[in-house]
């Protein structure tokens, strides 16, 4: 029986390995992690991440050919193929701080694999890493290998949170990069044999190592760039009276462009886009390409601009102050159908409002109070470390933040409502009831374009919706970021 071990039981390691176990009953898959609480959760009825369809997949295989364990070294020792899906945070100190990837966790994993191995192994980079990481890992491993042979493959993950299971069942492509040597090609074929259990041959692309590593960074940069492009246009729409939904529909019907990832919003979030673009920027700078670095940096700058523009709209509309006003925040996750809050725009929006002394009342159907409190007080980039290494204390001035259990409680006696995640349930709320229970004038700031503006205006709300023609009220109160 082929044995797979995956180091890192996170958003990527957990779902990808569960699907491999489901589709390949003859392979034993063990997911290991240094975080005891995470492994305990994977072994419980309440999995550590919310992902539609994941519970069913785990339930079908756990205890049969899918296992979760903290015995990292034992399972690495026994495995034929070791996936590494650990955190790759942005460095906060030293060379490349604020841009370069911090490969501490990756390096620790590589050294441990070399230490405990007694047989040849294929080591698969699942984490998103800078180009040429495989080469560095290869050096670490061969210098510590004691005669054992390691083949390093790059197999970046393209799943999207919220649709991870669907994406893993039916991916657009699987990418495997390896050395262009007979041993490298053999390793590629071994991994290909795993995926070909359920993925058509034509969708499994093989490349050299560097192309695979760069393709992942490039794909995320292109996706984020589309969002920043439409968000940049949204501010022009507001200034001119064009409607960003109409513009993006008209643009997206061009088959050369396509309709996906063209929704204007308060900004992109998630653990990957910003981190991976910063990484790309750093690689460009290191390779003497400052103009190229500057080009990609702009994608992040527009994202930051969009978030502060949103906060400024809120404050400017409410007579230039939100001090002591109650603002309801509907949605905290970085997108719908996930409980993930990493780099969610809600953090910056809440911090901006709190900076203007607002009282915020937050509701998200999938995010816990503890998580929200931690997100609001954690330093930039600290979130991207194993849970047990993250700071746990929250400061005492959280009195202006409350986290509540439903949208009606969040909006009761509020002056304004900010919609920051596009959860389907926010479309179906009883906005008349919400209006009746709010202070007047009552404002809705829709950061995801989910509400029916005309209907809400009929009720009596003053509505701001990103990139849509402005309410007369807002026209008189321009917000310059
Ligand atoms: P995560 O933070 O959810 O999971 C990483 C896990 O690795 C943590 O549970 C941590 O405790 C564990 N870990 C760290 N060092 C370890 C070690 N030495 N031994 C054992 N366990 C260790 O991160 P996530 O989201 O799963 O991302 C992992 C990688 O995949 C990152 O490089 C990310 O950029 C990439 N990626 C993430 C996607 C996403 O949607 N979240 C999509 C595609 C790629």
Describe, in plain words, how this protein is organized in 3D.
The chain is α/β, with parallel strands linked by helices. It has 18 helices and 14 strands. The chain has helices at residues 13-23, 36-42, 54-61, 72-78, 104-116, 133-143, 164-169, 182-195, 209-240, 244-252, 273-286, 290-317, 345-355, 369-377, 407-411, 431-436, 453-459, 472-475; strands at residues 2-7, 27-32, 66-69, 81-84, 121-125, 150-154, 174-178, 204-208, 326-330, 359-363, 401-403, 416-419, 443-446, 462-465. Strands 3-2-1-4-5-6 form a 6-stranded parallel sheet, with helices on both faces. The protein has a 6-stranded parallel sheet with strand order 11-10-9-12-13-14, with helices on both faces. Helix 8 links the parallel strand 7 and strand 8. Helix 1 (13-23) crosses helix 3 and helix 9 (209-240) runs parallel beside helix 12 (290-317). The model has no long low-confidence stretch (mean pLDDT 94). Bound molecules: 1,4-dihydronicotinamide adenine dinucleotide. 1,4-dihydronicotinamide adenine dinucleotide binds next to helix 5.
